[in-house]
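Dear Dr. L.,

I hope this message finds you well. Following up on our conversation about the binding site, I have prepared a predicted three-dimensional model of the protein together with guanosine-5'-diphosphate. For your records, I am including the exact sequence and ligand specification that went into the calculation, followed by the structure tokens. Please feel free to forward this to your student if that is useful.
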Amino acid sequence: MTDTTRDIRPPVGRIPNGDVPNTIERMRAGERRAIASVITELERLSDSAPALLKALNPHLGHSLVLGFTGPPGAGKSTLVNAIIAEMRKDGKTVGVIAVDPSSPISGGAILGDRIRMTAALDDDGVFVRSLASRGYLGGLSPAAVRIIDAMDGAGFDVILLETVGTGQNEIDVAEVADIRVVIAAPGLGDDIQAMKSGLLEIADVIVVNKGDRPGADQTMHQLAGALSIRATMAEKVPVLKTSALNGDGVPELLKTLADIGTRVHAADPVSRRRRRARYLIARAASDIVAERIKVGGPSGLDPLADAVLSGTLSPHEAAKRLFD
Ligand code: GDP
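The resulting structure of the complex is given below.
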């Protein structure tokens, strides 16, 4: 669980309020040190963060946020690198946020390093930041949203948000993207099962990577089958095949993302950001409830439980009182 309900003093910021306008200006001019320091302050949620967020606000809403998630080994980093290369050919600037909730190494996720190694290091049009481990005030997805805001404010055209794995943490982080891409690959067995339980629910696009390997078509069929029983069948979710290694299918994937992106961008920037904010509120609310229902005894849930037992309150009424 996260720390949303605890009162924790923010860390001391390294950007004094008086330096905020100048820092934002340098960041918007593409100065990497300024971009890095704004990201760090927002990531740490230091006491510089509120002034920075306020100053960034008029500049937000430009970036399209693409989320990539799926089981380890599916080829996410390789595919993200291929996508970065294609987007740079188009002249798009790309921010990358590599999230690895399972990595204990704070600030140095291995995932981000893998992307950094292959994405041209001296390319000013690419900026990579890793988010590792736990311990972020309010959880990982709010931290990811703050970094999205920083990169958006810096003017990146596209932000690629990559998460490792298929657990609830990853799904939570992926939810904050404008378009969610779920990556699978043949031969992952149990992981495909795990994906069915949660990841497929949030996918806007499904990619079966390693299309050069045997079994790719079978995996596509399995996933298409699982999708057909998805609860909300309103829209058809494309299932695409790629090979990140040789580039097959990558242009088609980008075309699909661009088509969906046009639809998403047609929604005004405020509504896209509002969707993220709504999601974070829902997350925080469920954290608060989860904290409260853990507490038994007279100051906790027991009086409400007794009221339900005696018939004076319905479970629904009792639940509403958790928020009083
Ligand atoms: P991640 O854990 O999902 O980020 O996966 P990686 O990108 O690290 O890839 C895992 C392994 O699969 C690496 O050895 C890659 O070289 C390999 N790989 C990635 N994409 C492909 C592909 O399209 N075809 C084949 N054959 N191998 C791939």
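In brief: The longest strand covers residues 94-100.

With kind regards,
A. P.
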